[in-house]
Amino acid sequence: MAGTRQLDYAGLLAEHGLRPTRQRVSVLVALASRDDATAQQIHALLADDGVRVGLATVYRTLAWLAEHGIVDTLMHHRGEVCYRLCGEGHHHHLVCSGCHRVVELGDCELDPWLADLTAEHGFTLEAHTVEVTGLCSACQAVGTAA
User: Fold this and answer.
1) pTM for this predicted structure
2) Rounded to an integer, what distance in angstroms lies between the CA atom of residue 87 and that of residue 95?
């Protein structure tokens, strides 16, 4: 696939305790060829490349990859879950509701605030994710020109 990042996908899976099956590696290769994609889009990419993997297997594989922190899930694609092969470490996302561009944000400073907030309500903080949706500057410019 054109644009595929040169990564050791089998090694990446093994680092996260997953067997590097043909299906898992194929899904990662297809996902890496795009910024993000839905399960349906990944299934179509695989079919276009002659890789025979069932749609249910793609969904199952993406669920495993997300559960093990290899891919992130985003909700910016018309209500359908999008998957993204992101950088390592804890981060959040800015998502453009116009063009669907995604920006990864590092340096999360929410933990102290969330720890206080959850403790105030009798919860223990385990994890958090943040997806901020808005318009990027390019989409704003198009919107103001109309």
Assistant:
1) 0.72
2) 16
133-146 confidence digits (pLDDT tens): 889 999 999 875 44
For 23-37, letters b (16+ CB in 10 Å) and e give: bbbbbbbbbbbbebb
Q: How far is CA 44 from CA 7, 22, 116, in A?
A: 22, 17, 45
Cβ–Cβ contacts within 10 Å for residue 83, how many? 26
Average pLDDT over residues 109-125: 90
* pLDDT at site 94: 85
pLDDT tens for each residue of 14-39: 888 889 999 999 999 999 998 889 99
Strand 72-77 and strand 80-84: the pairing is antiparallel
Q: Which domains does the chain have, with CATH numbers?
A: 1-88 (1.10.10.10), 90-146 (3.30.1490.190)
H helix or E strand, kind and range, residue 24: helix 22-32
Nearest Cα residue to 25 out of 112, 35, 49: 49
- CA atoms of 100 and 77, how far apart (whole Å): 7
